[in-house]
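Good morning C.,

I know you're traveling, so I'll keep this short. The sequence:
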Amino acid sequence: MNKILKIIALIGLSTFALHVLSLDFVYTKKAWFGAGSEGNEYAIEGYDAVNYFTQNTSVEGSADFALEYKNKQWHFKDAGNLALFKAHPEKYAPQYGGHCAWRMGIDGEGVYGDPTLWAIVDDKLYLNYSKETKRRWGKDIPGFIVKADQFWLGKNKFKTLN
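The C-alpha cells, ready to paste straight into the viewer:
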C-alpha cells in the first residue's frame, strides 16, 4: 500500500513538474515582430511601438496609421507616432525582433513576445512571453540582455538587435 502511494505521488509530481516547466515556444527566424501565424502580418500584434516610449503604456494601433518595416505591417494610434517611427524605426522596434527577452537570454531560441508584457531598459523596448518569464527576466535584466545580445548577434547571426 505504501509503495503504491509513493508511485502515485511520483507520477503526480512528475506530471505537475512537466506542466509547470513546459512553455509553448514558437520560433522562426523569418517571422520577426509577430506571431507569424497565417493572417497575422502585423508587427507586435498591431500594437503601437512608439506609445511605449511616449505614453509609457501598450496600446493597439490602427490600420489608418500603418507602415511596412522589415516585411511586417506596423500600426500606430495616430499620425504623430507613425511619423516618429518612420524617422527612427530602430529606436522604437523591440529588441530581438519582438521575441521574448528572457528566452533569448537563456538559450538564444525565440518565442514571440507578448506586447502587453514589456519593459524599456536603456531606451530599448523588450517584450516577454508570459508573466512568469517576465518575472524571471526581472531577476537579472542586465545579465539576460548581455546573453541575449550575444545569442541574437552570434548564434542567430542577425546584424542588428532589432
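Safe travels,
E.
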